[in-house]
Structure formats: C-alpha cells, structure tokens
C-alpha cells in the first residue's frame, strides 16, 4: 500500500502543478480575478488581478488520481464509500463554483447570499449522510476521540452529523484568507490521515483512507507551488468548500468524525473568531479582534503571511502528532 500512496502523492502533485502552470495564464486572460474585500487589510489591494477558482486544478487532479488508482489499491467493498465521499466533496465544490462565478459576474467579493450557500450545503451534507447510512457504510455510533467511550445517538446522529459537515466546510472556507494558509493546514491534516490509514490497512477502508489522503496531500503540495506567498492563484470557494468535504469525509471514513475538530483546530478557531467578533459587536459595539477571521488580526498585529501560515501549520502538526499517538 505504501507504493500506491507514493503514486497517489506523485500523480496528484504532478497533475495539479501542470494544470496550474498551463491554465493560470488562461484565467488571467479571461479576467477571472479574485475580487478583494473592501474592508480587508489595505495591503491586500496588491493581490488584485490574481486569478481565482484554482481549486479546479487540484479537484481535477485528485479525482483523476483516485479514479486511476482506486481499482488497484482499494478493496471493492470500499469503493462505494470512497466515491460517495468524493461525490460529496465535489458537490460542495459545485456550490463554491456557483459562489465564485457570482462574485466574478458582480465584480465584488459577494456571491451567493449566506442563507443560499448554507441551504445548498445542508442539501449536500444530507445526501451524503443519507447515502452512507442507507448503504450501511455509516451507523449512528459516535466514538469520543482518545477514549474507549462510544455513544449511540440514534436519530439525533443525523442532524448532528450534518451540522458537523457543514460547520467544518464553512470553517475551511474561512481559513482560505491569506496565501497558502488553507492549503498548508489541509496538507498537514491529509498527511495525518494517511498515517492513520496505515494500521487500518488490513481493514476494508484502511487502504481507501491511505489512498484518499495521499491524493489530497499531493494535490495540496502541487497547488502550493503557485499558492504560496506571493500567490499566483487562489483556490476560491470552489477549492475551499471541496477541501472541507474532503477532510470531513476522511474523518467519517476513519469512523471518528469528531477527530476533525481536534486536528482541524485551526479551522475551528477561524470560525470561532468570527462568531465572537460579530457577537461582541452586536451586543456591546466593541470588537475583540482587530479584524476577523483571526488570521487578519495577526496580519494587523504585524505578522507576515508566511509567519501566520508557518505557525498554523506547526500547531496543526502538533495536534496531529498527539492525535496519532492517542489513536494508536
């Protein structure tokens, strides 16, 4: 299985990097530039003209990689849940694509209304949970990470699982605010799930997790060739919503969905910072942070984008290492 993992990483990396190199000039020629948020950090104005929707490149590469290798590296019993999970992530990408397209047409950083995006995400998450449960690939038992405790939530599992998926998906979306942040954090998490799949390889989904995570890891590395600061391409909501589906899907495939809240703590912090900022301002007319999400707060404190990304990646790596130790 290690051979297939390496192949998945190399194939996804190469395909993403080559697609990015070939089509970035095309996106620029079509003026598919990222609209810059008017109230964002003033130095982000220099990013105007950078093309967006680059998530299409790594989405294509990941789907291609899994399609090519899955029939060799994954047990037949595991093919269906893998492709259902990829389907869920791709439908999230479609929601992001609609949002990105609306932003480009309006030429401003506002696409779908918040409730429209949320409703579409709810539909996608509901389809995913419904399909996985109906086909017997998911039950209503939730394990508590790092413990032997499990809870059978019964019917309550369904709304909670849907909320978890949509919540994480939006959190990953919020993390995509500076060059390389979302891709780097996600690459670390993908590496974690790849390692997590090693002791599970004897099981039906072990090889699936290993390959799935390898394709995601390679795609993120390939995208970072052009997304690392200073970025020459942004992933857009097309990419970030896809990644949200991928990381939550990996957690569900590993049968430990709450684990994503631990290894993906950076995602969670980004969302919590926005909730606290909005809540504080509405209640007390005071802001807790200089700007939310929190990566912008650190920017306004004088941190460079590369420093923020490095610190976030290190925190994620430590959380992944601790989680891996306790999982074993």
Keywords for this structure?
single chain; two-stranded antiparallel sheet; 12 helices; 2 strands; globular
Overview of the structural elements:
This protein is mainly alpha-helical and 328 residues long. It has one domain. It has twelve helices and two strands; from the N terminus they run ααααββαααααααα. The protein has helices spanning 2-29, 55-73, 76-106, 114-134, 157-175, 181-197, 206-227, 236-253, 259-263, 265-284, 294-300, 305-327; strands spanning 141-143, 150-152. A two-stranded antiparallel sheet has the order 1-2. Helix 3 (76-106) packs antiparallel against helix 8, helix 4 (114-134) crosses helix 5 and helix 6 (181-197) packs parallel to helix 8. The longest helix is centred in the N-terminal third of the chain and has 31 residues, at 76-106. It is globular. The two termini are 19 Å apart. The mean pLDDT is 90.
Q: What is the compact description of this entry?
A:
This protein has helices spanning 2-29, 55-73, 76-106, 114-134, 157-175, 181-197, 206-227, 236-253, 259-263, 265-284, 294-300, 305-327, and strands spanning 141-143, 150-152. By secondary structure, the protein is mainly alpha-helical. A two-stranded antiparallel sheet has the order 1-2.
């Amino acid at each position: 299985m290690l051979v297939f993992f390496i192949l998945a990483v190399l194939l996804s990396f190469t395909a993403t990097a080559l697609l990015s190199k070939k089509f970035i000039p095309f996106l620029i020629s079509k003026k598919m530039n990222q609209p810059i948020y008017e109230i964002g950090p003033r130095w982000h104005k220099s990013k105007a003209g950078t093309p967006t929707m680059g998530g299409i490149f790594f989405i294509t590469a990941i789907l291609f990689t899994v399609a090519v290798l899955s029939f060799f590296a994954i047990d037949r019993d595991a093919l269906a849940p893998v492709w259902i999970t990829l389907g869920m992530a791709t439908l999230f990408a479609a929601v992001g694509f609609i949002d990105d397209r609306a932003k480009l047409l309006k030429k401003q950083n506002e696409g779908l209304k918040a409730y429209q995006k949320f409703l579409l995400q709810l539909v996608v998450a509901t389809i995913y949970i419904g399909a996985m449960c109906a086909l017997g690939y998911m039950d209503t038992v939730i394990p508590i990470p790092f413990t032997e405790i499990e809870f059978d939530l019964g019917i309550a599992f369904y709304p909670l699982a849907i909320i978890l998926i949509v919540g994480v998906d939006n959190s990953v979306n919020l993390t995509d605010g500076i060059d390389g942040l979302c891709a780097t954090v996600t690459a670390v998490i993908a590496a974690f799930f790849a390692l997590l799949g090693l002791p599970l390889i004897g099981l039906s989904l072990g090889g699936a997790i290993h390959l799935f995570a390898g394709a995601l890891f390679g795609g993120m590395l390939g995208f970072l060739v052009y997304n690392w600061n200073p970025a020459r391409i942004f992933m857009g909501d097309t990419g970030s919503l896809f990644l949200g589906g991928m990381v939550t899907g990996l957690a569900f495939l590993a049968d430990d969905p709450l684990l994503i809240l631990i290894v993906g703590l950076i995602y969670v912090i980004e969302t919590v910072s926005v909730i606290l900022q909005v809540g504080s301002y509405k209640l007390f007319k005071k802001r807790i942070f200089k700007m939310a999400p929190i990566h912008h707060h650190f920017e306004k404190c004088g941190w460079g984008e590369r420093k923020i990304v490095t610190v976030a990646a290190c925190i994620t790596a430590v959380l992944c290492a601790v989680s891996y130790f306790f999982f074993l």
